[in-house]
Amino acid sequence: MSDVRVHNFSISLDGFATGEGQAPGVPFGHAGERLHEWMFATRFWHQMGGGRGGRTGADHAVAALHGSGIGAEIMGAGKFGPPGWQDDPGYQGAWGADPPFHTPVFVLTHRPRPSIEMEGGTTFHFLDASPAEALKRAREAADGQDVRLGGGPSVVRDFLSEGLVDHMHVVQVPILLGRGVRLWDGLESLEDAFDIEAVSTPSGVTHLTFTARSR
Question: So which domain of life are we looking at (predicted)?
Answer without folding.
Answer: Bacteria
